């Protein structure tokens, strides 16, 4: 990776950590923050928001895609997610599907195993194309 690209990931991680600091996770005690780069240069973020009705909790990625759509849409190109220690976290299965909708197989994810395309984190994904066949 070029130095410039690495700086880009570090900046995105900093945004994810800032979002994590705003999480509402009183039930799990597990705050999460997510940040993504949009193809027009915007950065969108999200944090998890839990609920007294436990199953209704929203993952950080839910807030992120909501902010994406509500701030003009576009395609996600890079994504990172951190836990309460600010360490890189892989998105849960449901959230990989949320990300696939707005980033597709080429969305780059920062993972503990390095930068990987979503196609490797969600192989043989079901997506919008299936509905137009
Ligand atoms: N969580 C996320 O926000 N994103 C993920 O990808 C993994 C899990 C949240 C959900 C819940 O509020 C807490 O982490 C513990 O599972």
Automatic annotation (TrEMBL):
Q: InterPro entries per the record?
A: APOBEC/CMP_deaminase_Zn-bd, CMP_dCMP_dom, Cyt/Deoxycyt_deaminase, Cyt_deam_tetra, Cytidine_deaminase-like
What EC designation does it have? 3.5.4.5
What's its catalytic activity? 2'-deoxycytidine + H2O + H(+) = 2'-deoxyuridine + NH4(+); cytidine + H2O + H(+) = uridine + NH4(+)
- The protein's name is Cytidine deaminase
Q: Which domain of life is it from?
A: Bacteria
Provide this UniProt record's keywords sorted from A to Z.
Answer: Hydrolase, Metal-binding, Zinc
Report the protein's function. Answer: This enzyme scavenges exogenous and endogenous cytidine and 2'-deoxycytidine for UMP synthesis.
Give the cofactors, semicolon-separated: Zn(2+)
Similarity annotation: Belongs to the cytidine and deoxycytidylate deaminase family.
